[in-house]
Design brief:
Rossmann fold; single chain; 5 helices; 122 residues; five-stranded parallel beta sheet; alpha/beta
């Protein structure tokens, strides 16, 4: 059975690029435009991994990760931050919130898929 990955990014083109790479690797994909939209879509369905942007309107990625980690069904769901932010302080903030990996844009789809396959829940 295919594993499900949620992509949270306010850029439709980034969601599309990531989505194509993931679907090509055999994953099912759920897209969300920001943290609030994503929380609305996390309705108890099984999500094996979340890829989230950091800078988004309504709810940024780090706040979103903190919220996700409060939800019993998603407490252990790995999160990859996919962002233009490369500062160490932001990375540490992301890790403190519960993010497991940090991929900086522009990214190579192969690099991102490698991170996904390493972290995705069985």
């Amino acid at each position: 059975m295919a594993k499900t990955v949620m992509i949270v990014d306010d850029s439709a083109s980034i969601r599309q690029v990531v989505g194509i790479a993931l679907k090509g690797a055999g994953y099912d994909v759920i897209e969300a435009a920001d943290g609030k939209d994503a929380l609305g879509k996390l309705n108890g369905q099984k999500v094996h991994l979340i890829i989230s942007d950091v800078n988004m309107p309504n709810m940024d990625g780090i706040s979103f990760v903190k919220e996700v980690k409060q939800l019993p069904s998603y407490k252990f769901t790995p999160v990859i931050m996919l962002t233009t932010e490369s500062q160490e302080s932001k990375k540490q903030e992301g890790q403190a919130a519960g993010a497991k990996a940090w991929v900086v844009k522009p990214f190579q789809p192969a690099q991102m898929l490698a991170a996904v396959s390493k972290l995705i829940m069985p």
